[in-house]
Amino acid sequence: MKSKLRIIAAIVLLLGLLIGSTCCVNDTSVKSLTTTFNIGINTSSIKSANGLSLTLSLDAKTYQQGQKVNITIDEKNTLFKTNNVPVSGNWPMDELTLAGPCNVIPYPFGIAILPGYYTSADYRKAIQLKLYKPDTYIGCINPIPSDFSIYNFKQQSDVATMSSESNPQLISTIPLYVPITLTNYWTGAYPAAVQHNFDPGVYTIVAGDEWGALVILHFTVTQ
């Protein structure tokens, strides 16, 4: 009888610990401590000296013209402890983007799509395709706070708390994981911008973060 009581007490204690470990997550924007990252068919990652890993993934290597290109980008802490990483501004390429010019979240990474086949040796020579309609820049108020100075990553997680040394009240916790779907690009300028499907051919997609990490993938568009 005593052994049964001990087992019941142990179960009650375990349930109490589990409930206590989840009751105090007060940031409703973070649904879990890590993101389930669905690795695509076409994927590449790079680890940085600061303990972070940048992953770029596509759902295919070949697409038909007009087909959706599904892209995911993820920044994760590979360490078995929390990781405070100061911002550096060491972008490997200018004008890397994510969700358009009015992006309201200061993600530390972005992408670019280049027409043609490029590698880490010559990607800077390419001209980036415009991924978002130029007139979406009109009337945008830059909402991205410039005072975020530290990304505090949870252990082995892509969830980070962004904070500011100069403004302690400026703080936000988000998963650094972004899915992007593209079917076209734009040429021209506002108000005469023209939308195009990706033409048949080979494309290079570049992902980079502000700590200098660079990941390159290629995909082909067919008729």
Arithmetic mean pLDDT: 80
Strand content: 35-45%
Taking pLDDT < 50 over at least 5 consecutive residues as the criterion, the unreliable ranges are: 1-36, 141-145
CATH-scheme architecture: Sandwich
Helical segment count: 1
What fold name goes in the CATH topology slot? Immunoglobulin-like
Distance between the termini: 74 Å
Helix/strand/pairing category: mainly beta
Strand order of the largest sheet: 1-2-4-10
Radius of gyration: 21 Å
Number of domains: 1
Name the CATH class.
Mainly Beta
**For the record, what is the CATH homologous superfamily label?**
Macroglobulin (MG2) domain
Helix content: under 10%
Label the overall shape: globular
The count of strands amounts to 14
Largest sheet: 4 strands, antiparallel
Order of helices and strands: HEEEEEEEEEEEEEE
List the helices and strands and how they pair.
Elements: H1 2-23, E1 42-47, E2 52-58, E3 62-64, E4 69-77, E5 83-86, E6 109-115, E7 150-153, E8 159-163, E9 171-175, E10 177-182, E11 184-187, E12 194-197, E13 201-209, E14 214-222
Parallel strand pairs: 3-14
Antiparallel strand pairs: 1-2, 2-4, 4-10, 5-7, 6-13, 7-8, 8-9, 11-12, 13-14
